[in-house]
Amino acid sequence: MERTLAIIKPDGVAAGLIGDIIKRIEYEGVKVAGMRLTQLDRRQAEGFYYVHRSKPFFNSLIDYMTSGPVVLMALQGNNIISHWRELMGATDPAKAGRGTIRGDMGTNIERNVVHGSDSNESAIFEINYFFKGTDIVT
Ligand code: CMP
Tell me: domain 2-41+69-135, CATH 3.30.70.141, correct? Predict the structure, then answer.
């Protein structure tokens, strides 16, 4: 059993897609083990995305991620890290397949509706970044 961090980003929340996205998650039999609606401040967003701090899109990414509420989720299931990445589709919605969340709902490579951890190491970092152990149910 594995866990990953999923985020419904500000564009997804603003477009009223929370329900649609959670429906896709639950339809797949994936368990939501932790969930919170919040608005990130710059310090939180910069710490979360520190691996991208030297990328040219970093400031724009932080502006976007702090522009409105997000939904943070800890998802749990067999191979959930790769499973959630399949459900999200490619980072760039233009390259994401039909039937994926980003392919169906994304706007561009920045405003791509959802986030998912890319490895077990980052999943542990990212879940611990936002959730206390007592906020996760097993
Ligand atoms: P995410 O999976 O959350 O990880 C980093 C985010 O940075 C990514 O989704 C996009 O929102 C954004 N991103 C990645 N590549 C680019 C890019 N080339 N230009 C703008 N934003 C990007």
Answer: yes
